[in-house]
Amino acid sequence: MTAVVLQARLDSSRLPQKALLPLDGKPLVFRVMEALNNVPAGLRILACPQDSLSAFEPLAAQAGFEITAGPKDDVLERYCQVIRRFKITRVIRATADNPFVFTDAAFAINAEALALNADYSGYSGIPTGAGVESVSASALLRAGSESSSPYDREHVCPYLYSHPDLFSLHRPLSPIRWQGSNIRLTVDTQEDFDRALVLYGALRNEPLRYHGFTILKKYAEIFIE
Known about the structure:
Layout: E1 2-7, E2 22-23, E3 26-27, H1 28-36, E4 43-49, H2 53-63, E5 66-70, H3 75-86, E6 90-95, H4 103-116, E7 120-121, E8 133-136, H5 137-146, H6 150-155, H7 158-161, E9 169-170, H8 190-203, H9 212-223
Parallel strand pairs: 1-4, 1-6, 4-5, 7-9
Antiparallel strand pairs: 2-3, 6-8, 7-8
Helix pairs in contact: 1-2, 3-5, 8-9
């Protein structure tokens, strides 16, 4: 089974409590889940630390996500726990600071990963905050058992793509319609969030709000002269 697994936490040094900041009347993390509901998957799970569980539980339920708590800093182990608990075979990995994830690109990269039986797949060339990673559960479990680096364990996938001798990697340049490596769509700072408020408002009435071309077009209209 393929599952969307969204990692989220409350504490952020650059923008405290950003997951709960209101984006058009709903918390940021809810808007991310709302977007990910457009990615085909058998299951959707919010994976958070224990200290975030009570804040996120009602939001996950409202968005139709399962929720589970695991280690705060060892995010790789958090994913491994999710895999073991829900018997997942492939993970579409997403992060809670990306409300403008390109769900059409997410569908495409996962389809490519399945066709190639790749351990790790992710597009290059798309805006920061627009992408997801498609990762086989077996590869994540292997990384969890072999990696001891705090960096690898916090960031989940570096052990895979730093060991091409051990894992099958698929890291293509994205199709041109999704390209925009100079564009920043993630929310990590107050400036990012202020920009997200403007862009989200502009996309409010778009039927394809979470399709990459629509988002890039609106971003260009607003922020690129």
